[in-house]
Design goal:
One of its GO terms (molecular function) is glutamate-tRNA ligase activity. Catalyzes the attachment of glutamate to tRNA(Glu) in a two-step reaction: glutamate is first activated by ATP to form Glu-AMP and then transferred to the acceptor end of tRNA(Glu). By secondary structure, this protein is α/β, with parallel strands linked by helices. Among the domains are: about 35 residues, no CATH class; about 70 residues, Arc Repressor Mutant, subunit A. It is built from 19 helices and twelve strands. Helix 7 links the parallel strand 9 and strand 10. Helix 1 packs across helix 10, helix 3 packs across helix 6 and helix 6 packs across helix 7. The longest helix has 17 residues. The mean pLDDT is about 95.
Length: about 450
């Protein structure tokens, strides 16, 4: 069975850039009939909070993602300890005692000599006496994984064949001096333990993949299939970031956007599929293949989101809208069908509905008063239907010679107080003759 995982760090609210891999993994799981795991990478105890973790679950649920399993790395330390001990016993994890200042000096010296600033593995030459001396001074070791230093090759489902040469990389630190784990070891251990078959994540992790494959192999695990997607950027081309306070998924929810519109923008931007309405996430999953994701940047356009959100609302059925309409004290299929065409966000209907219920402040230009007085006199008797608007404006055109904007705009401004809005021939029927007489001067 296909098993995927999305592994956010609960150190803030998730943004569009985080939603992209969350949804791409969901689509892949749905398309293949697989299993979706939500894994909270909460080993950073100083920054991770349960509040942020709960917020991630709320945001995923709002987007329509329903994980099959939730795990928290903070509850799985025993697994990481066992892996740590195995790597130490195999000679692949070794203690280092350099301070950050000493490491900085080493890197600076390497650059001056025109060498890559990678770790020189000096700690491998330390004797037991050397280590005891450092620890007597109060130094606690950080632990590095000894890389094979070879070309690590893998077939990426998005980028194609990839090679990461670990010979050009520093042996990565897996355990901090305080004994806490960095991202890499817990991630690999979890992927092995949870039988993850596919890792779908941002292209900024490509270089990490070489390291992680070596660790997986050192632990005797099965290497998953990798797919590294392009990163979503904002309109200025900057990457989304919790640290920089990028607009969060919760912000989009609070601003009244449809979750499906946000999901489409987060995932179809930067693919060969057009940004257009879909019926559901499953409908996207049926069409979107990983090979459709481009290799260039995916730039998010807020204007495009507004347009997409509007198109989703314009196609929304009355049955789908009814629960929300009822909560706002609005009902009636004719009202929904009339007003939905002017919605950008669902909440806009509260203001638009005042065109029917009032109060409306008519806008009347002095040069149009005589015309509007005639319009009031020529207003047809009821009963009204959608032909009434044509009969009324036809009589006005014959009587005044006005046509086009000069004919209909004064009527719109007098009846609605605004230059845009619903189709007047339908609005007229719902308003009724009494309301129209009250609004015409």
């Amino acid at each position: 069975m296909t098993v995927v995982r999305w592994a956010p760090s609960p150190t803030g609210r998730i943004h569009l850039g985080n939603a992209r891999p969350a949804l791409l993994n969901w689509f892949f799981a749905r398309r293949t009939g697989g299993r979706y795991i939500l894994r909270m990478d909460d080993t950073d105890l100083a920054r991770s909070t349960r509040e942020f973790a709960d917020g991630i679950e709320v945001d995923l649920d709002w987007l329509g993602v329903k994980p099959d399993l939730l795990v928290r790395q903070s509850e799985r330390t025993a697994l990481y300890d066992t892996a740590r001990d195995r790597l130490i016993a195999a000679g692949r994890l070794y203690p280092c005692y350099e301070t950050e200042e000493e490491l900085d000096r080493k890197r600076a010296r390497a650059r001056l000599l025109g060498k890559p600033p990678i770790y020189d593995r000096a700690a491998l030459s330390l004797s037991e006496e050397d280590r005891a001396k450092y620890e007597a001074e109060g130094r606690q070791p950080h632990w590095r994984f000894k890389l094979d230093g070879r070309p690590v090759q893998f077939d990426d489902l998005i980028k194609g064949p990839q090679t990461v040469n670990t010979a050009s990389m520093s042996d990565p630190v897996l355990i901090r001096a305080d004994g806490s784990y960095l991202y890499t070891l817990p991630s690999v251990v979890d992927d092995i333990d949870l039988a993850v078959t596919h890792v779908i994540r941002g292209e900024d992790h490509v270089s990490n993949t070489g390291t992680q494959i070596e660790i997986i192999e050192a632990l005797g695990g099965t290497v998953p299939t990798f797919a590294h997607h392009n990163l979503l950027t904002d309109a200025e081309g900057q990457g989304f970031s919790k640290r920089l306070g990028s607009q969060s998924i919760a912000d989009f929810r609070d601003q009244g956007y449809e979750p499906l519109a946000v999901a489409i923008m987060a995932t179809l931007t930067g693919t060969s599929l057009p940004i257009e309405p879909f019926e559901s996430l499953d409908a996207i999953a049926e069409k979107l293949e990983l090979s459709m994701i481009s290799h260039g940047a995916a730039r998010f356009d807020p204007t495009e989101l507004n347009g997409l959100n509007a198109r989703l609302l314009h196609a929304m059925s009355y049955e789908e809208a009814l629960p929300r309409l009822t909560s706002m004290g609005l009902e009636g299929e004719a009202i929904w069908l009339l007003l939905r065409e002017n919605l950008v966000r669902f909440a806009d209907i509260a203001e638009l509905s005042k065109l029917l219920t009032g109060p409306v402040e008519p806008v009347v230009a002095e040069e149009d008063r005589e015309f509007l007085a005639l319009a009031k006199a020529l207003l047809p008797p009821e009963p009204w239907d959608e032909n009434t608007w044509g009969q009324w404006t036809g009589a006005l055109k014959t009587a005044t010679g006005r046509k086009g904007r000069a004919l209909f705009m004064p009527l719109r401004l007098a009846l609605t107080g605004r230059q845009d809005g619903p189709e007047l021939k339908s609005l007229l029927v719902l308003l009724g003759r009494r309301a129209c007489l009250d609004r015409l001067p």
